[in-house]
Each structure stands twice: as structure tokens, then as C-alpha cells.
Amino acid sequence: METRTVRASDEPLVNLVDEQGHIHGNAPVSIAHSGEGQLHEAFSIVIGRNNNGVIEILLQLRSHLKKRFPHVWANSVCSHTLPGENLEDAVKRRLKEELGIECELTECGTFIYKARDIGNDDVVEHEFDHVFTGMIDAKTKVHPNPDEIEETRWVAVETVIEEMQKNPYKFAPWLAQVLSLSAPRLPKAA
């Protein structure tokens, strides 16, 4: 497959991929997320902690300033690789940029999804998503980047799943699939 670059402005680029996750070019973020969406590489991180024997995960309320899926609850970090950036470096970079922390991360698997933003029909996510998990000590403080995150909360996976069933539009459309891959990889409660 031929590699191509589409450049419309100075906005960030995302890596376009095929259904096996092989990069074949790149495009500006806005173009990749418009129309029917272009399949591109993304990643989702779920950070967990053991809080007195209860395994909790960190959720973020996406900033209302986000152009895609603003003000919904999502996993700890979600982002894209940059052209020429390796996946492991991108994951570490965004964990530090969004939450101000570092920890060991393990890849849990991948999935493809496509979702149109309920509040903005012109925006669509079409992503080949790599899912990662990591654990931090219950005393570790996170420092959410206010440009990305309005609020965070620690919650048990079972509670998140119940809340998503009751109010699905309060959550990012990719979260259920992220949890199905990441939850089995988290430690079991004490």
C-alpha cells in the first residue's frame, strides 16, 4: 500500500492505518475525524490502584473544550500517536502530559470502532485503538491537565459498567470496549 501524507494546515497529524493496524499515511486530525472518518491509530490507557483492597480505575471527564466527544467520562488517557513516533513512546508521553505521572504500562489488545459524536454530527471517531493498563500506588497524586481533563474520579470497574448501562450518553463510546480488554488485566481485589 502506498504511504501518503495529507496536509491541510499546521494542525497535528494522525497516522492512518489499515484494518491490521499497518500505517499507510497520515492526515490532519480534523480531516481524519470528518465525513465518514478515516481509520487511524489511537490508544487508550486505564490506570488502576488498590485502595484498601478495592481495585479502582481512574476516569476522566473530557474537557468541554474538546472538539470530539467533549464533557463525557472516558478512560484515564486517550490519544493518538504522531507520525514517526513509536507507540510505546506516545503512550508514556501522553500519560505524563495528561495526568503528570509515570508507571509501567502493559498492552492488553486492540479493537476498531467507529462512533459519531452525538453533539456534533460532523465529527466521527474511526480508530484502531491499542489498549494499555498500568497500576499506581493509592498514595500517588495525579495532576490532570486542565486543557484535556475537567475532572477525575476513582471508581470500581463494576460501578462504571452499571453507570454506563443506566446513562450511556455520559460516557465515551469506546469505553465499554476499552474496559472489556483492560479489566481482566487488572489485579484482583484483596
Characteristic key phrases:
Nucleoside Triphosphate Pyrophosphohydrolase, alpha+beta, 190 residues
Question: Could you give a quick summary of the protein structure above?
Answer:
This protein has 190 residues and is of the alpha+beta class. Helix content is 18%, strand content 37%. It has a single domain, classed as Nucleoside Triphosphate Pyrophosphohydrolase.
Written overview of the protein:
- With 190 residues, this protein is of the alpha+beta class.
- It has a single domain, classed as Nucleoside Triphosphate Pyrophosphohydrolase, CATH 3.90.79.10.
- It is built from four helices and ten strands, in the order E-E-E-H-E-E-E-E-H-E-E-E-H-H.
- The protein has helices spanning 29-32, 87-99, 157-166, 175-182, and strands spanning 4-5, 13-17, 23-28, 40-51, 54-62, 73-74, 77-80, 106-116, 124-135, 149-156.
- Strands 4, 5, 6, 7, 8, 9 and 10 form a seven-stranded mixed sheet that branches. Strands 1-3-2 form a three-stranded mixed sheet.
- A hairpin with a 5-residue loop joins strand 2 and strand 3.
- 32% of the residues are buried.
